[in-house]
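Q: Predict the assembly, please.
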Amino acid sequence: MESSSSTRQLLWFFAIAVCVKLLLIPAYHSTDFEVHRHWLALTHSLPLSNWYADETSPWTLDYPPFFACFERFLSIFAHYIDPQIVDLHNGLNYRANSAIYFLRISVILSDLWLLYGVYRLTKNADVKRRYLIWVLIVWSPALVMVDHLHFQYNGFLLGWLLLSISFLQEGKDLMGGFLFAVLLCFKHLFAVAAPVYFVYLLRHYCWKGLVRGFSRLSVLGAVVVAVFAAAYGPFLYHGQIQQVFNRMFPFGRGLCHAYWAPNFWVFYIILDKVFSFFLKKFGFSIQIPAASFTGGLVGDSSPFAVLPKVIACNRLKQYLKKKKKTQWTWCKFLTT
Amino acid sequence: MGKKKEKKKINEKVDVEAVEIEDDTWWWLTHKGIGATFLCISVFALLVRVAVSLHPYSGAGSPPKFGDYEAQRHWMEITLNLPVLEWYRNSTSNDLSYWGLDYPPLTAYQSYFHGLFLRFFDPDSVSLFTSRGYETYVGKLLMRWTVLSSDTLIFFPAIFYFAFVYHSSCHSSRKNDCAWHIAMLLLNPCLILIDHGHFQYNCISLGLTVAAIAAILSQRELLASCLFTLALSHKQMSVYYAPAFFSHLLGKCLRRKNPIHGVAKLGLTVLGTFTVVWWPYLHSTDALLGVLSRLAPFERGIYEDYVANFWCTSSVIIKWKRLFSVHSLKFISLTATVLTCLPSMVQQVMAPSSRGFLYGLLNSSFAFYLFSFQVHEKSILLPLLPASLLALEERRPFKWLMFYGLFSMFPLLCRDKLVLPYFALHALFMLLYLAPCGHGARPRNARPNNTKFDYFDSFKTFMNGFIYLSSLILHIVYLTMHPPEKFPYLFEAIIMLICFYQFAVFAFYTNVKQWSLLDHSTTDEEKKLI
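A: Predicted assembly structure:
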């Protein structure tokens, strides 16, 4: 009785958010809108072997394969509603109402997965905390702005994360680990949480004595490998793994994105700019690259005028060629 | 004996727990008092308004006449570039046939100030002659901001004043009910769609009216008269409320020791405010008559388009425009309006009370909406305002009124391409009405078993359900199907018929309700007023 009324109340919170999101349909959207529309067309029109190789549009596929499969799934409905949305060439920069409504509504509906994650997470929380969490997540202004204005599918992805955490909370560590591996194959950005997961699962799930612990570790490892095999297997078969990695980790874009994230490297950039400004004033001839941080496309950029370039990949490529490792290596280089 | 006491304690504990659980849902909204609750809800209301502003306005991209948006922009252009006396006069620089000013001077002054704002950021949008049909992104942004700022500066504080006065006088008011009521007032879908979608400035005149009502509820009658006069000077439609204000204040004055003194004070306040606002036009009768003739365009006929009032609905059977001249129709509609207002006015003069006053506002605005001359679909906003003020007392009728009020505006909003905001705001309103642990979601009080009433009740339920279902189907039909060629306005006519029926039933019900207040008038009220 209580759980059905709390489900209804959660749906009420979601419905209010949906009304506001519907009103935002004609609002501004960034180039990410065209990115996702193009990926619908790409996954719909081309076979798997061409997904990471196609160059029709500058917006190349740079998410892991499961997300591409998700776009493929959505493209079935898009084709039914308006075939031009998924046309590879004629659909470029297609801005008709059908495209806008379809894509906006697809994000709104995919937020149902976030809702499920929130529901599962707060099932056993006390009443006050439950309502607070609902308000903070379902009505999150940051999520609305990024997902429903700028245009992305973070609600859907965060749903997987919350689902995984809810299973960990219930003690079902294997399921939690499995769901996190699935999430990694949707968006590799969540690998920043991988160290935490690794340490937690190692200590909580695998630290059970030598034999039992080791067998659990193998089971966990096998599950993760199976997930990754399901995602990357087809591309290994087509011999495109290198291409996939190049697309997923575009180090050629440079250290920072066009719009700086407030992280440590900002200080590095500011220091570089301050140095270049003052050194120029003192008469040194410094080559200041024009519009260095306004890119966003995959390409080569060396944005630093004074301070040394921060390279991640070059040395590591050599390292990887020498030794073949699993996700532990990926975690290591992401934190370099 | 001991067991009974224990039972009572357990019951009390259960009640307290039930209240605690209910309060737990919205504790984060209501625990800091009415000010914080209001701020939180008003910020959300502002977000919804901004979101609706993204959508098209009336007459978007449709030359040569465009729509209300162009009218408002044109008034800014006229008031900014011409001297005050030229604003209502036909001349070479002011062509009254192209959206001439047809609201009283306060609208003109407001247009002037907004014109200053627009000229500061985008002079091309208000330059004389050359800015006709000016439609750019920046222009739209600035115009939308004028409505948003008017709403925030006038309507929101007025609602806060009202909520503060209403809920401090009503001691049984729970915090959740107060929050629910504020949400109902601020997230009125009709007002948001008309002001921030279609494009008008009803928020100013309605805000001034709400402030006047709140002043009356807090016994500040001179302030109330001043504010209501300002509202009248902004939009002549505020006269829909005039009978209620007049009868209530008269009733109160008559109960005092010196009624003539009270009436004189109020009269002087009203005249003084009028003089201040209309000052530029008071130097000659010509100027004054010039303005007044623009305010009452009788030559446009007793109704226009399809509005759910008596004249338009009955014109399906009785062709008023063919049978009578404009002059006789003026007289007939005036008589009908006055007759319909009379019961509520009499009740207030005989037994003025705060509650009766709110009902009086509702009844007089409905009387005008149903029987007045040249009523627009948008005028349903006027009865909807007192209905929202009374939302806590007339829970279900309010919901139905809002539904049919929105429905009556559906054809207009479809023409403006505001279909998506219509459905989104409608859904938002219904969701907020049914908010968990809110006033709207509370179950109905159990009726005593009486077989006689059961049949009437079930018939009523069946009729209401049938009409509601037909309305929902009509929404889809209107959007997807074409009307037959012989009757191109068939769907509008059906919508009008349904809405008129509901409005008429509702108006009858509230009139009966107000009249029944006469039996409940107490001597305590009389003691208070002296």
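The two ends of chain B are 49 Å apart (CA to CA). Residues 454 and 460 of chain B are 10 Å apart (CA to CA).
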